[in-house]
Amino acid sequence: MAQIFNSSNSLYDFVVRDGNGVKGLVDTGISEVPERYIQPLQERIMNQHDSRVCDVPPIDLSKLNGPEHKKVVDEIVRATETLGFFQVVNHGMSLEQLESLKEAAHAFFSLPTEKKIMYRPGVTPMVKYGTSFVADIEKVMEWKDVLSMSYSSDEDALKYWPNQCKEVVLEYLKVSSKIVRDIMEILIVNLGVEPDDSIVEHLIGVKTVNMNYYPACPNPELTIGVGRHSDIGTITVLLQDGIGGLYVKVEDDNHAENGEWLEIPPIPGALVINIGDILQILSNGKYRSPEHRVKTTSSQSRVSIPVFLMPTLTEKIGPLAEMVKKDGLAHYKEVLVKDYVTNYFAHVHAGKKPLDFARTFNSA
Q1: Is 277 helix (H, G, I), strand (E, B) or coil?
Q2: What number of H helices and E strands is found in the chain?
Q3: In 172-207, which positions are buried (b, 16+ CB within 10 angstroms) versus exposed (e)?
Q4: Residue 309 and residue 337 in contact, taking contact as beta carbons nearer than 8 Å
Q5: What Rg value do the Cα atoms of the chain yield, rounded?
Q6: What is the average pLDDT value for the chain, to the nearest integer?
Q7: Can you list the pairs that 60-68 forms with residues at least 24 positions away whose Cβ atoms lie under 8 Å?
Q8: Rounded to an integer, what distance in angstroms lies between the CA atom of residue 80 and that of residue 283?
Q9: What is d(CA 148, CA 165) in angstroms, rounded to the nearest whole number?
């Protein structure tokens, strides 16, 4: 029999404070979405009719080391300058490894609540288990539970990360980091800067792996898995399962609030790459940090596994001098990464609004 929540506070206590998450909420047997999860009409994906499936084929990274090197480089640059999203294959992880990642995510979120709350913030170093985005300040919560694992060394990862996933996630992180280094070298050169390992490592030195869990939802048309947002970091690598539900906005330069939504379909064996805010700032707007969101489903629970790479909090980030000289002005000011991160997590998801924190009056 479904548990009855007499108030929004009792729901919050059950889901957030007690650590049951959305998974625990669904496990009570609810037959309809609680009011705290019902999104405003304008945020509901299934009420939108302005989307289509992205039909751009994935980029074959194995061809970077062959006669088609320039063609692949051009594909990466074009995707980064336009949509800010693209998929890659032949990246270094087998189908079996990718399936193991998905299975590991399901294994963790299937644990009893008392096992998962061992990883709530402040309990276990380098690991955070929670729900939604910033549940403490959200009037409407997102239909998602999340496990976040910070990386400092292989030794610490194997010591602190959950046993259900630590080994396969560590291998995924290593492959993702190599992919991002190769892509970053291409993008840095395209901006007119000499390739330098220290520059690239400076921009991707902080690494975090999330496991997102979207339980099957009784009313998916009313909810959202993740609201409209752009990623905070430099580059994100994402594994999505076969269910899908990821949507990316094609920006309209003249009307930022407009733009078509593209669904990024799951491709077996592919990883999704997307640009983050820091790389948009660094490139003075040449590279796009795309707005994206995730819908929920009623059929079965969905998982996705992003790797976020960014500079350390003590670094300052601003447009490269080469780009300012080329463009004639800076569209973004220099900001401390820590300040940008603090501002980002101080607000609910609201599209690309966090970029306003770094914009200059010269920026559109």
Answers
A1: helix
A2: 11, 15
A3: bbbbbbebbbbbbbbbbebbeeeeeeeebeebbebb
A4: no
A5: 20
A6: 92
A7: 60/88, 60/89, 60/90, 61/88, 61/89, 61/90, 61/91, 61/92, 61/179, 61/182, 62/90, 63/90, 64/182
A8: 11
A9: 12
Supply 220's token pair. Answer: 């998916």
Report long-range pairs for 66-73 (Cβ below 8 Å, ≥24 apart). Answer: 73/186
Q: Tell me which residue of 301, 250, 300, 247 sits closest to 272, measured CA to CA.
A: 247
According to DSSP, residue 359 is labeled B
Q: Are 147 and 162 in contact (CB under 8 A)?
A: yes
Query: Per DSSP, which regions of 38-120 are E strands?
Result: 51-53, 59-60, 85-89
Specify the amino acid at residue 106.
Answer: H
Task: Give tens-digit pLDDT for 55-96.
Answer: 999 999 999 999 999 999 999 999 999 999 999 999 999 999
At 253, give phi and psi (nearest 5°): -60, -30
pLDDT of residue 364: 47
Helix H, strand E, coil C: the string for 173-193 is: HHHHHHHHHHHHHHHHHHCCC
Strands, DSSP E only, in 67-179? 85-89, 127-131, 145-151
pLDDT for 252 beyond 90: no
How does pLDDT run across 145-173, given as a tens digit for each residue? Answer: 999 999 999 999 999 999 999 999 999 99
Backbone φ, ψ for residue 105 (5° rounding): -65, -45
φ, ψ of residue 269 to 5 degrees: the values are 85, -5
Distance CA 182, CA 269 (A): 19
Instruction: Say if pTM beats, i.e. exceeds, 0.85.
Output: yes
